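Worked Example 4.2. Consider the chain below.
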Amino acid sequence: MTEPIWHKSTYSGNNDNCVEVADNTPGVVRVRDTKNHAKGELTATPAAWAAFTAFARAHAA
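Applying the procedure from the previous section yields the following structure tokens:
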């Protein structure tokens, strides 16, 4: 099993409300709170993550 390599999401900006993303694990993208890893993580397929980030970019304020 591939260990996730976490990095701060570019969509987090420069504030304290950040998420980390691990997209190196085959078939799944993992998302977690940067400050509180104990809360667990969300997982999505790469296609679902791509759709979500495209939506976020299109609707960014």
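DSSP finds one helix and four strands in the chain. The first strand starts at residue 7 and ends at 8. Compare this with Example 4.1 before moving on.
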